UniProtKB/TrEMBL annotation:
Enzyme class: translocase
Complexes and interactors: NDH-1 is composed of 14 different subunits. Subunits NuoA, H, J, K, L, M, N constitute the membrane sector of the complex.
Functional description taken from the UniProt entry: NDH-1 shuttles electrons from NADH, via FMN and iron-sulfur (Fe-S) centers, to quinones in the respiratory chain. The immediate electron acceptor for the enzyme in this species is believed to be ubiquinone. Couples the redox reaction to proton translocation (for every two electrons transferred, four hydrogen ions are translocated across the cytoplasmic membrane), and thus conserves the redox energy in a proton gradient.
Cofactors that this protein relies on: [4Fe-4S] cluster
UniProt keyword terms in alphabetical order: 4Fe-4S, Cell membrane, Iron, Iron-sulfur, Membrane, Metal-binding, NAD, Quinone, Repeat, Translocase, Ubiquinone
Gene that encodes it: nuoI
UniProt source species: Rubritalea tangerina
Catalysed reactions, semicolon-separated: a quinone + NADH + 5 H(+)(in) = a quinol + NAD(+) + 4 H(+)(out)
Membrane topology note: Peripheral membrane protein
Name under which the protein is recorded: NADH-quinone oxidoreductase subunit I
Length: 189
């Protein structure tokens, strides 16, 4: 059996018990930053085009759009190909992999008289609850047809929960067209 050692905590003096020194240090840091922001010398004030007092960005007049990193992941959207055909084949991989379960897909059949009937199905309904979405990018990574992309949009607002559920039509509207090879239209596939 291992030996147990009892450690004795060091005794605190009266100043340490009252935390006076810690409070004074915190107040000095706060006053230093306040003085720099009033004089217009705050760190980052120039790069953010701030109002001059501090580095507070004046949203919505000023936005992060030019300063977003290349790898930024925003809101998901569905895209079409050059001929306005749906890329999504309702494989439901994005629905299954979504950690917060924000995606709901109802598959639908493509009529036999459709010129693109080679494809088995397309989504009848495709909903993404933007309140639940955590912008993780897993839906984009798992999509075999490159039908869902994360945009660089961070300002998604609505006045009700119903407005925050983006349906198929809205997702295609905000996603737009994506140029490039689409596996499901490939004749060799």
């Amino acid at each position: 059996m291992a030996e147990v050692k009892k450690l004795k905590r060091p005794e605190l003096d009266t100043g340490e018990k009252l935390y006076l020194l810690a409070l004074a240090k915190g107040a000095m840091v706060t006053l230093k930053h306040a003085f720099k922001s009033v004089t217009g010398k705050a760190r980052g004030a120039d790069s953010l085009n701030s109002s001059g007092l501090g580095i507070t960005m004046q949203y919505p007049e000023q936005k992060w759009d030019d300063q977003l990193p290349e790898h930024y992941r925003g809101a998901p959207a569905l895209v079409t190909d050059e001929q306005d055909r749906e890329r999504c084949v309702s494989c439901q991989l994005c629905e299954f992999i979504c950690p917060p379960k924000a995606i709901k897909i109802t598959p639908g059949e493509i009529p036999q008289d459709d010129p693109w009937a080679k494809v088995e199905k397309r989504p009848k309904e495709f909903d993404i609850d933007m309140i639940r979405c955590i912008y993780c990018g897993m839906c984009e990574e798992v999509c075999p047809e490159q039908a869902i992309y994360l945009r660089k949009d961070y300002a998604i607002t609505g006045t009700s929960r119903e407005e925050m559920v983006h349906n198929k039509q809205k997702l295609y509207e905000i996603g737009g067209k994506r140029v490039g090879l689409v596996n499901k239209w490939n004749e060799l596939k």
